[in-house]
Amino acid sequence: MLNYRRLSGKPSIFRSFTGLEVSEFDSLYVKLESTYDKYEVKRLSRRGRKRRIGAGRPFKLSLMDRFLMLLVYYRLYITSTLTGFLFDLDQSNVLKNIRVLEPLVKECIPIPKKLYERAGRASTVEEVEEYFPGFKAFIDATEQEIPRPKDKRKSRSHYSGKRGRHTVKVQLTVNSKGLIMHKTPHARGRRHDYDIFKASHPRLPPGVNLNLDLGYDGVQNDYPELNPTTPFKRRRGKGELTAEQKSFNRKLAGERVVVEHTICRTKKFRIIGEEFRNRLRWYDRATDIVSGLVNLRIMGANM
User: What predicted TM-score, i.e. pTM, was given to this entire model?
Assistant: First the structure.
């Protein structure tokens, strides 16, 4: 049986299985444990619940092992059958246990929504610099494959010609340290990156420079107030780019690599890196938690 006591004794395997160091897990678990009782009272007091608080069968696993199971599931994205076998739990209860804990985990980690709201309240140069070092932000979109929808209209709208598969897209805004400061709700794979940007772009503090790739060509004319920077694009009939323009594009690509690294970090959690097998209504919650875990590790490394 897999449990915290057994796995924490092998730190390298613990990190591979959960995506966190043992010390990071421990500090996060302290937050979970301190708010768990209050969270459970709120959860069990929801409208429509017929049983009294405390009624019903108790959880088989401890809070610590249920949290460990959630991380293992997110990191390895194994089937619920295998997860149940590893944790000595009936497979029908695996996702039930995970779904119960997900909202609490979101409360305890630095998900993008929290950082974005804090950055929006920044009123001084020093406060803006804290959230956007160098007054720079970087945007890019990432796609994830999903099973082919049975509905024909959904199948067409989720088909990505670029990937040749059915996908969903999420757009991330990161700062120069790689922290995910903003995340859009998932969109259909057929939608263009710039179309997603128009629907839900971040509102950054004044003076912050927004750096994008050629997929957002035209943003300078449509959103000059966002202080955007995009690479020079070779236009038909305009000739080749100058040496200075090519040099600028290389420099911008070198700075934008931070957002590529952050996307790579999120995809190390295989629930985001592989085909998403769960229902799409859970997708934004999953990306919130993975983004928060990535932010947690980045913030710890920069302390």
Answer: 0.93
